[in-house]
Amino acid sequence: MPKVEDFINIGFDKHQKGNFEDAEMAYQEALKIDCENPEIYNLLGVLKLQQNEVDTAIEWIEKAIKINPCEYFYETLFQAYIRQSNFSAITGLESFILKTFPKNFSLLFNLALAFKNLKQNKKAISFYDKALKIDPTSYQAWFNIAHLYSIENQGKNAVSALKICKKLKPEDRETDYFLSIALMRTKDYDKGLKFFEARLCKETAIALQNKTYPNLAAMDKLWKGENIKNKTIFVYYEAGFGDVIMFSRYLPLLKKKCKKIIFYPQKQLVPLFQENPLGIDEIVEGFIPEQMMNFDTHTPLLSLPYLLGLKGKNVFESSEGYLKANKKLAEEYKERFFNNEDFKIGIKWQGNTYYDKDRVIPTEAFFPLLETEGTKFYSFQTFEGSEALETISKKYDITDIGSTLLDFGQTAAALANLDLVICNDTSLAHLAGAMGIPCLMILPYEVNWRWHEDLSKCDWYNSVKIFRQKSIGNWDGVFEEVKNFLISSLK
Fold first, then answer.
1. Residues 383 and 420 in one domain
2. I need a surface site. Which of 120, 241, 339, 359 has the fewest CB within 10 A?
């Protein structure tokens, strides 16, 4: 007569081979013999988890735990909760785990992961720290805690954690990239820019140009910082509009080192750079066949500060208001929208949500500002997010500028008529800063690396003042600060 172990072994063999139906049948036969065997219940839970039947998996695992509350079964349960994104269920077991299994790395790691996903960063850091005391070789734990350190403005700790990650994975490009971000967040650009060369958008930009110009933009023609005094260099965009506006400050420095610059920005930025050459000799507005192009070397734009060998504060240097609007177009915008004596304020609440949704500001958060006497507000929201303007328009007098903006030349012309810009972390803040227009930039709790840890000033743009959430998701608090600052500025 078959024993329970025989059915378990048969089920386990089928399970490993991916024959889930026969494995479940074998486990069920084993249960008929021994319905108090927790291992069988756990195996059924693992089986259902692999079939993505998470609720059923949890039911089986909980039966195993009821019979034998061992750490292995809790590890399986936590995996099921993570698959379910039920992080509160994990954190609810915090006291029990600390009391019963205080040395179990997996359970402590997953508690940290749960707190991280619930945005309880300090609790998450404490549990990653506990887990790392048990296994200091865990790359993922060091990587995760580094990210949390960055969010919590503990830059030096983030750098230290990522340096350990690099020792654990010396050739990992992702580690190099995030180490660069951590270093630059602490303003260590001397080291950070070198590691920043590992960024994925650089690789994508180079690959795209290599495909378009396989002979001219070959890898062996990539500029590595050598002397190009008598050569033509092709510089092309990468990342978003704000990045291109910010890093275009280096083009005049590049011009001093080469004979000619051919620059390829995004289509929407072309009119802006046609108005502001910045040492550019030729602007590529779209596809040009390779036989009609002529350059000696090439580089993506964001590599310029590294290739130019910029150190320390020189990374931030640029002429005040290095971008300007077309005067005629600015005057046309003035006559059409801005010909009044009010204090004119442009606002924007949303950028590209493909990369980051935390930077999106709910339009209701602007309502207290719109009640400020002596002001006139203009919406610079374009495309995605512009539908939210209707919410504001129902209560307040606000002029829609965004629907008239098709490119950044037009945006610059409209901005030139403003007294102030109030917006989220988006390309509008970069353009206002590059034009020297006063701007209040409102940041979420998790701040992008370029704004650094000391938010009392903006290192990149003198005209930009930074405001940051004091707690995750709390827009009311930061907007109260903005309103107080606005009122004091108007006195």
1. yes
2. 339
**Do 287 and 402 lie in a common domain?**
no
Which residues 6+ apart lie within 8 Å of 396 measured at CB? 367, 370, 371, 377
Helix, coil or strand: residue 299: strand
270 and 345 co-located in one domain: no
Flag whether pLDDT at 7 surpasses 90.
no
| pLDDT tens by residue, 349-387 | 987 766 667 788 999 999 999 999 999 999 999 988 788
Chain-centroid distance of CA 98 in Å reads 33
Q: How far is C-alpha 333 from the geometric centre of its chain's CA atoms?
A: 34
Distance between CA atoms of residues 155 and 151, nearest Å? 9
Residues 6+ apart with CB under 8 A from 18: none
Residue 139's contacts (CB-CB under 8 Å, 6 or more residues apart) are: 165, 168, 169
- 279 and 350 assigned to the same domain: no
Rounded Cα distance, 221 and 229, in Å: 15
Contact 443, 451 (CB under 8 A): yes
Q: State whether residue 468 is helix, strand or coil.
A: strand
- The region that residue 466 occupies, defined by phi over 0 for left and psi between -120 and 50 for alpha, beta otherwise, is beta
- Residue where one domain finishes, among candidates 294, 316, 338: 316
CB 261 within 8 A of CB 327: no
- Whether residue 115 lies inside any domain: the answer is no
Domain CATH number, residue 369: 3.40.50.2000
Residue 5 lies in a domain: yes
Residues 6 or more apart whose CB falls under 8 angstroms from that of 482 comprise: 369, 422, 440, 442, 467
Q: Which two tokens stand for residue 28?
A: 């069920």
Kindly state whether residues 341 and 311 are assigned to the same domain.
no
Domain boundary among 84, 102, 131: 84
Backbone angles phi, psi at 162, to 5 degrees: -70, -30
The residue range of the domain holding 272 is 201-316
Grade residue 391 by pLDDT with cuts at 50, 70 and 90: confident
How many degrees, rounded to 5, is the angle at CA 41 between CA 38 and CA 42?
85
Q: Is residue 318 a contact partner of residue 248, using CB atoms and an 8 Å limit?
A: no
- Phi, psi torsion values for 379, nearest 5 degrees: -90, 125
Together in a domain, 340 and 450:
yes
Taken in order 14, 15, 20, 22, the sign of the CA dihedral is positive
Rounded distance, CA 308 to CA 245, Å?
Answer: 18
CA-wise closest residue to 97 among 476, 89, 142, 119: 89
Please tell me the pTM assigned to this model. 0.91
